[in-house]
Amino acid sequence: QVQLVESGGGLVQPGGSLRLSCAASGSFFTIRAMGWYRQAPGKQRELVATITSGGTTGYADSVKGQFTISRDNAKNTVYLQMNSLKPEDTAVYYCNAYIAVGALHAYWGQGTQVTVSS
Q1: What angle do CA 105, 67, 11 make, to 5 degrees?
Q2: Which residues of the chain have pLDDT under 70?
Q3: Looking at residue 1, what is its pLDDT?
């Protein structure tokens, strides 16, 4: 069984920072692209950032220059460094990964709440 387990969410004041982590565990061959999505109350889930196995990154326009995605392939872990947080960044953040378990499958974490409020 493959699992993605997120950590690092919480309550932070505007202008603050948080670092999210997502670790993949289980039996698999390799992890391809990994990414972070978020879903705010009453809104659709949206892509935040992605990173390939080779380290190529992509960001939503709304977070460019504010968030940084990275990964540690040895630890099967992806990170999201979030700086200068704003109330509109409040959402449940989900980790996503394309993992080869025989065929390639998409997996999701359980989500971690990020609340930006004074």
Answers
A1: 95
A2: none
A3: 86
In the three-class reduction of DSSP (H, G, I as helix; E, B as strand; rest coil), residue 109 is classed as coil
pLDDT tens-digit profile of 45-72?
999 999 999 999 999 999 999 999 999 9
91-101 and 30-39 strand pairing: antiparallel
Terminus-to-terminus CA distance in the chain, angstroms? 40
- Which residue, 106, 51, 56, is CA-closest to 80? 51
| 84 vs 69: CA distance, rounded Å | 15
DSSP E strands in the chain: the ranges are: 3-7, 10-12, 18-25, 30-39, 46-51, 57-59, 67-72, 77-82, 91-101, 103-108, 112-116
